[in-house]
Amino acid sequence: MRRAVAAAVAGAVCAGGVLMPLLPRSASAGTPLCSDPVVQQIMATAPGPGQTAKQQHGPPGSTVTITGQNFTAQFCAVSSVSIGSHQVQAAQLSASATQITFTTTAGMDGDVTVTVRDTTTNTPIAVDSHLVYITDPTFTGLDNTTPPTGATVHLNGQGFDFQLPQNWELTSAGYHWTAGPTGPCPAVPAGQPSVSSDAQIALQVPSQYCDGAVDIDLSAPYDTTRTGPGDPRMQFRLTAPFDIATQVTGKSRTSAVPGQSVVVTGSGFGSQGGAATVNGEPAAVQSWGDSAVTVVVPARATSGVLNLTRSVDSAPFTPGALTVAAQANGISPAKASIGDTVTVSGAGFGPSTGTVQVGSTTATVQTWTPNSIAFTVPDGATTNPVNIGTNGTTPPTPPGLTVVPRITGVTPPDAAPGALIEVDGTTFGTQQGAVQVGGQPAQVTLWGDRAVLVVVPAGLAQGPSTVMVAPPGNDSVTAPYTINAPPPTPTAAPGSGSGSPASGPGRSAGSGSGTALATPGLILPSSNGPVIAQGPVNFVKPPPPPGPVSLKLDTVSGQADPGNAVAFTVTLIAFGKPVPGAPVDLVMVIEPGSDAGLDPAHGVTDDQGQLKGTIHLSHTPGDHIVLARSGIYSDEVRVVGRGARVAAAPGSAPAGVSVPPSTPPLVSVRSPVMWALAACLLLFGAGFGLNLLTAPAAGPAVTGSGRPVRGVRATLLDSMLGMGSAARFAAGVVAVAASLALGALRRP
Questions:
Q1: What share of the chain is helix, strand, coil (3-state, %, to 5)?
Q2: Residue 636 pLDDT > 90, yes or no?
Q3: Sheet bearing 63-69, strands edge to edge
Q4: Secondary structure (3-state) at 676
Q5: Angle CA(537)–CA(540)–CA(546) in degrees, nearest 5?
Q6: Distance between CA 383 and CA 403 in Å, rounded?
């Protein structure tokens, strides 16, 4: 029995020793039964077919496999896997003793921690493998792809913050050209990009122009226990293109003359050169740098926009408008006569023809270039600035031109002493100057801007000579002339005839007192102004006498109603041709009232030798005597303001001017009227007397029946009363007829 019990006990001990390892065990207090897990490797496979495994990083949705040991056992299970702050629970992963597999989501970044739980004691065992997993960052581009130099821009995207301890995640940037030169961009700024947030990285672009891209490198360690310089890291490169924009800060001038330089300052211009235009006209580039460009204003430029274009990327930019100003550097010749060609040299006149004026007189342009203008001195021009009107540029300061006289001919081409000659030319002016023939002063009989009439001085020798005209305030001008032999016996003073000199017969315009007539029909003006004569003036216009000079004053009508206007024309002819540019004075010699006038009172003859104007008649009826004169030549005309001929007051007309007497004789043309008035008075008196005689002294006698008794006397008185009434009626008729007759006689 004892042997049997001992044998049983020995067998039980042996069986327990054999089966003990196979039975569940209980841990002593605080002692886990699971071994520590070991993480050896992390592999990520991107989603989608054909993706190869990548070590320790991948895009969101990647399948991550953690390889190691002791992940699972009889009494051990994987509780969770943590990547940074993200945790994958056991239900979201699959695990074996050597592998753990799960799918990543966005934002899983950081060091990897595997936690194993002891199922018997529910005690977690966490192991930090010191390995790092990163979700690949993504980006959408820069928030400003054309920043100015040195600006701060931001790279937008996701997954930029790896959630690692400080200095574990590193950033760097590099800039390189994508257009133009190769290699790194110039002036890469110091400092590195900074991760502003998980969705944004801030960086500074170069401080000089670059048309390229920025490469932003993010890196994280594979193993945080290895921090040496040779430690391999996970590298993420994000590339974003950009093009530095130009930024203009100013230009050296806003207005320039062609040939001048304009300096444009700013940044981002690049150092590879470029092109420039001024209002579309190509301009030479003197220098081109990243912060300054110097442009020369072209000769054909006009005012407009200054445009610049970088050659490296053909990007245009504009510093704004530029006013192109013309400049007149010289005028040649500075003194010229009408008809001469004058050239103005300078710059900025523009490519298209503009206008040229000498003073206010428009000139004909012969040639026009941006640097030179040639024009003809126009007829009528006087010394004045030359105003140049340009197209598209600011006109220059006008240069001055002195217009000097010129002799174009002498009529007749030769003459003897004492003869009247006409010197034709230009720019003599309207103020009388001096004339010499053969060096001797000559008498001037008429002076005009384009013609001067003079008498050849006596005593000049026969043969070649000269004529010199010296206008006041201007250069003198000389022309050759031939002097003939003097005539044996002068028969008449030069210029006799209509418009003859004062010494000869004809209409000479002296300035007498108005007390005598120079010739029949020509009334001299009074020095005190027009004479007011309210009555007919004895005026007969004489026929024009012969002579080389004719000054003629004509009106469209010899009479008009008082207060109306009558047009006049003054015509000046010398040697059979019009005399242009001659000053003419108009004078009212006699007028019926002080409200008469002349328009103009002074003028200059036109190319046809004429001056036109208007005589404004007085509102008082009567004769108007108007005198026209130029030099010593004159003519008169009478214009009548219709109305009753009013007798002139004593002394109201100048001596020698005949006016009718104030009281006409009884036998004059008005005698029938006077007889009619006398008859009217006689008849009226007779009728009045008869009426007085027939007036009854008392009432008439009556019969017994009440009727008046009429005798022979009463009947006679009634007859006389009727005759008196008839006489008075006849007197009234005669008075009316006499009034009508008197009115008819007063009309001219």
A1: 10, 45, 45
A2: yes
A3: 53-55, 38-45, 63-69, 99-103, 93-95
A4: helix
A5: 150
A6: 5
**712-746 vs 671-693: helix axis angle to the nearest 10?**
160
**What is the residue type of 355?**
T
Q: What CA–CA distance (Å, rounded) separates 590 from 596?
A: 10
The first and second tokens of residue 158, run together, are 């996701």
- 10 Cβ contact list (under 8 Å, min separation 6): none
Written as six digits, the tokens of 157 are: 């995207």
Torsion sign, CA atoms 347, 352, 353, 355: negative
pLDDT tens for each residue of 440-495: 999 999 999 999 999 999 999 999 999 999 999 999 999 999 999 987 765 554 44
User: Is the model's pLDDT at 218 over the cut of 90?
Assistant: yes
Sign, CA torsion 12/14/19/21: positive
Q: Could you tell me if 31 and 64 are in contact, meaning their C-beta atoms sit under 8 angstroms apart?
A: no
pTM above the 0.90 mark?
no
Which of 135, 164, 116, 109 is closest to 44 using CA atoms? 135
CB-based contacts of 549: which residues, under 8 Å, 6+ apart?
420, 445, 446, 453, 495, 497, 498, 499, 500, 572, 573, 574, 575, 633
**Per-residue DSSP letter, 472:** T
Give Cβ neighbours of residue 327 (< 8 Å, ≥ 6 apart).
257, 346, 347, 348, 396, 397
Token match 């400049």: residue? 327
Which amino acid appears at position 476 of this protein?
A: S
Q: How far is CA 116 from the centre of its chain?
A: 89
Amino acid letter, residue 643? G
CB 140 within 8 Å of CB 97: no
Token match 């301009």: residue?
283
Structure-token pair, residue 726: 């008839």
Number of residues written out for the chain: 748
